Amino acid sequence: MKNQIPNLLTLSRIIVIPALVISFYINGPAGNWIGFALFAFAGVTDFFDGYLARSMNVVSPLGRFLDPIADKLLVAAALMMMVAFGRISGLAVLPAVVIMCREIMVSGLREHLAELKVPLPVTVLAKWKTTAQILAIGFLLVGDASPEMIPSILIGDVLLWIAGIVTVQTGYIYLRTGLKHLD
């Protein structure tokens, strides 16, 4: 059973997605905070599934497959819902689109390179991108429900742009690396 704990944590991130979507339909600040809490819960499970898998040496093919998919589904669902509900609007939609396009491109590239037995390891810059992206989504999920002294929307928008800019850089790095193996 302990071998399955990381996989269960990964699956919990996928299961959270419908609840996150439903939180957008809850009127008032409660919906914002519920969405944030669900997203934060998913972030905690992401940390622990990786930590437990490595510390218990139980990295599984299922976990290796599901973990990045769970992350991308969660981020995509959050971004799409925030655009649909106007929490990301105007020019701030651009980095959201860039983030989603890069994720699809890198996933396809990783899949193709895996067939060639060519690894495409995560870069330190990509980890910084993920951090900015997660923080941006967290602030934007809280949105106007945050205390007045915390400009959550402004902070979220700035972090989203930072994540978008770094996303372009990491996408280019991965694409440049991958193109060397595409004939």
From TrEMBL:
GO-annotated biological processes: glycerophospholipid biosynthetic process
Major site of localization recorded for this protein: membrane
Transmembrane spans: 73-100, 120-142, 154-175
GO molecular function per UniProt: CDP-diacylglycerol-glycerol-3-phosphate 3-phosphatidyltransferase activity
Gene Ontology CC terms: membrane
UniProt membrane topology term: Multi-pass membrane protein
Catalytic activity: a CDP-1,2-diacyl-sn-glycerol + sn-glycerol 3-phosphate = a 1,2-diacyl-sn-glycero-3-phospho-(1'-sn-glycero-3'-phosphate) + CMP + H(+)
EC identifiers of the protein: 2.7.8.5
Protein location: Membrane
Keywords, in A-Z order: Lipid biosynthesis, Lipid metabolism, Membrane, Phospholipid biosynthesis, Phospholipid metabolism, Transferase, Transmembrane, Transmembrane helix
InterPro entries: CDP-alcohol_PTase-I, CDP-OH_P_trans, CDP-OH_PTrfase_TM_dom, CDP_ALCOHOL_P_TRANSF_CS, Phosphatidylglycerol_P_synth
Pfam family, one: CDP-OH_P_transf
Pathway named in the protein's UniProt entry: Phospholipid metabolism; phosphatidylglycerol biosynthesis; phosphatidylglycerol from CDP-diacylglycerol: step 1/2; Lipid metabolism
Similarity field: Belongs to the CDP-alcohol phosphatidyltransferase class-I family.
PANTHER family for this protein: CDP-DIACYLGLYCEROL--GLYCEROL-3-PHOSPHATE 3-PHOSPHATIDYLTRANSFERASE 1, CHLOROPLASTIC, CDP-DIACYLGLYCEROL--GLYCEROL-3-PHOSPHATE 3-PHOSPHATIDYLTRANSFERASE-RELATED
Protein name, UniProt field: CDP-diacylglycerol--glycerol-3-phosphate 3-phosphatidyltransferase
Organism: Thalassospira marina
